Amino acid sequence: AGESDGEGSDYSPVLMQGGDAEAEDIEQDEREQKRRKLEFLTLEKKKAVENEKMQMSAAKDMGLDDKLLNGEALFSEEVDVKHKWYAYYDKYRPRKPKYFNRVHTGYQWNKYNSTHYDYDNPPPKVVMGYKFNIFYPDLVDPGRQQPTYFVEATEKGWDDDVCLIRFHAGPPYEDIAFKIVNKKWEYSNRRGFRCTFERGVLHLYFNFINYRYRR
Q: Which three-class secondary structure state does DSSP give residue 103?
């Protein structure tokens, strides 16, 4: 019986020591998790600051931090896009891209307006074109992902007056769309058309065809 008690007394401390070691391991795991979480938050904050600097730099290069040119105004008439569930949602946090857009308005001094209006009594201003600058600094595969755009009908269908322009780039960016005037575009570079993707920014500039008035 004495030996049994002795074995019991020898065995019990072993269990207690094992419990202490396990508790210490748990504390170490918790500290490691907290450290990794802090590193992740610090990295995300640093990335956000870098993205902001990149956007400010790109905006400065495009002259977007200066005064608006004559006939230009900031444009941000964003509309909702129906989103699908993508497989990369579990790995990458989906988000909408940031943008700097402008709409160009002015007077059309065609023959009709020249006959019925003058500079003291000008005709109504019309939309003459747009400038879209969509930022995609964190594409998952920038070597293969080429941002693009689509001209589509509104949620009510095709309309003679307005339509949608939707921008698509792929993960981690969601599609983004804007409602614009539905007119035919000028695709000549000499008439202001530009569609390029450089330094993480998609530039799409275009003007509408100016139809002359005829009797």
A: strand
Distance (Å, rounded) from C-alpha 107 to C-alpha 118? 11
**How far apart are alpha carbons 91 and 215 in whole angstroms?**
62
pLDDT single digits (tens) 49-90: 777 777 677 666 666 555 566 677 777 777 877 766 655 555
For strand 201-208 and strand 185-186, is the pairing parallel, antiparallel, or unpaired? antiparallel
End-to-end CA distance of the chain: 122
Contact, 139 vs 205, CB < 8 A? no
Structural contact between residues 170 and 182, judged by C-beta atoms closer than 8 angstroms:
no
Q: Hey, how many other C-beta atoms are within 10 angstroms of the C-beta on 10?
A: 9
Closest C-alpha among 95, 117, 119, 109 to residue 176: 95
Place of tokens 């019986």: 1
pLDDT digit string, tens, across residues 141-164: 887 888 999 999 988 888 888 999
| Prediction pTM value | 0.58
What's at 84, amino acid-wise? K
Phi, psi of 92 (to 5 degrees): -120, 140
Q: For residues 144 and 15, what is the distance between their CA atoms, to the nearest angstrom? A: 58
What 3-state class would DSSP assign to 134? strand
Q: For residues 124 and 133, what is the distance between their CA atoms, to the nearest angstrom?
A: 27
